[in-house]
Design goal:
34% of the residues lie in helices and 18% in strands. The protein is an alpha/beta fold. A 9-stranded mixed β-sheet has the order 4-3-5-2-1-6-10-11-9, with helices on both faces. A two-stranded antiparallel ribbon has the order 7-8. It is globular.
């Protein structure tokens, strides 16, 4: 039995890619995968953490991919935003079945299934202890869900932005292609930009830099990593405002 969670943060913005919803399938939603995510989110909420979740839609469709097929870029991005709403509703259902109250707020208006995103409304839900799932991106084309996560983290007063990915942090090169890739334990925003490390898009990382929002990049492939990140354990890569020469260490050192 896992030890009781002792949160290191009081307010957190968690960024989930749509890919984490599909499990091992090529697309769509995997119920067991979503259930596992929901269990960690519900535990974090029960520990008193005020939690916002931004979710992507890549398990269904990506705007940048559709635009390569000849679909107008703005139209393609709106299609991607709609996909995030499907994922948000699936995650909401799984969390609420575990007894944790939630609200889905979307930047795209869809009154039949969710509330329209309004900052004060989102803050009020957080104050009431509800998990706030943020769908629809920013509501504008040409902006990624990473940028949405950075924006919402700043708007809602999060202490940290947790970015869950398929790899265990930020690496010097692609670790799936280069066995010599080095994982950075800590990086500054400027190092991220100068090294052109594309774990987040330029708009997102610049927004975090301007607002001194720390970012923790970690892997979701290991169950329990969300609670470990919320507990302040040294997993993944911490991106912050200070230079960190010691960051150039291999994982485990």
């Amino acid at each position: 039995m896992a030890a009781k969670l002792k949160p290191a943060y009081k307010r957190v913005l968690l960024k989930l890619s749509g890919d984490v919803m599909r499990g091992s399938g090529e697309s769509g939603i995997d119920g067991a995968r979503v259930g596992g995510l929901a269990a960690e989110v519900a535990e974090i909420a029960s520990a008193g953490v005020r939690l916002g979740v931004v979710i992507g839609g890549g398990n269904f469709i990506r705007g940048t991919q559709c635009s390569k097929w000849g679909i107008d870029r703005s139209t393609a991005d709106y299609m991607g935003m709609l996909a995030t709403m499907i994922n948000a509703l699936a995650l909401q259902d799984a969390i609420e079945r575990l007894g944790a109250p939630t609200r889905v707020l979307s930047a795209l208006e869809c009154q039949a299934v969710c509330e329209r995103y309004i900052r004060r409304r989102a803050l009020r839900h957080l104050e009431k202890g509800r998990v706030v799932i943020l769908a629809g991106g920013t509501g504008n084309p040409y902006f990624s869900t990473d940028t949405t996560a950075a924006l919402r983290a700043c708007e809602l007063g999060a202490e940290v932005l947790l970015k869950a990915t398929k790899v265990s942090g930020v690496y010097s090169t692609d670790p799936e292609k280069d066995p010599r890739a080095v994982r950075y334990r800590r990086l500054s925003y400027m190092e991220m930009l100068h090294k052109d490390l594309r774990v987040m898009d330029l708009t997102a990382i610049t927004l975090c830099q301007d607002n001194r929002m720390p970012v923790v990049v970690f892997s979701l492939r290991e169950p329990g990593n969300i609670r470990r990140a919320v507990g302040g354990q040294d997993i993944g890569t911490l991106i912050g405002p200070e230079q960190a020469p010691a960051a150039r260490q291999r994982a485990g050192k």
